[in-house]
Amino acid sequence: MNVGDTLAPLEIPVTRTLIVAGAIASRDYQDVHHDAELARAKGSPDIFMNILTTNGLVGRYITDRLGPYAVLRKVAIRLGAPNYPGDTMTLSGTVTALNGNTAEIRVTGANGIGHHVTGTVTVTLGAEEVPA
């Protein structure tokens, strides 16, 4: 692994089930994450994904790409364009720093209307598992 290396992208279909299940799993019962009618009444065209679901998907992206010995040390994200049902979010990452077996990876998740998530993930790999 070298600074500047990119991780293979991951496409995630944004389904109504994913949005609602993520909200329930993270105990986020705000109506904008499960009730389309109430979401529209509040000015949104539909329900949308919560930040905790996005955070989990970013973590999954990194560990799926770096393997079972990857340990997330820090995930710092910022939301942008909402993830609505029927869209696809494509996660991508670039290694921005290395310190021994610890890497910092810049992550972006884009959907049909823009960048849904941007941020950085700090991850440590077992010394024997650092990809060449």
Describe this protein's structure.
- This protein has one domain (6-129): Thiol Ester Dehydrase, Chain A (Roll), CATH 3.10.129.
- Helices cover 24% and strands 39% of the residues.
- The protein is built from three helices and five strands; from the N terminus they run E-H-H-H-E-E-E-E.
- The protein has helices at 16-25, 36-41, 51-66; strands spanning 6-14, 71-79, 87-99, 102-111, 114-124.
- It has 132 residues and is an alpha+beta fold.
What CATH calls the topology is: Thiol Ester Dehydrase, Chain A
Average pLDDT for all residues: 93
Q: Number of DSSP strands? A: 5
- Give the CATH level 1 class: Alpha Beta
Helical content stands at 10-25%
**Sequence of strands across the biggest β-sheet:** 1-3-4-5-2
Radius of gyration: 16 Å
What is the domain total for the residues? 1
Which structural class should the secondary elements be placed in? alpha+beta
| Low-confidence segments | none
CATH homologous superfamily classification = Hotdog Thioesterase
Major β-sheet profile: 5 strands, antiparallel
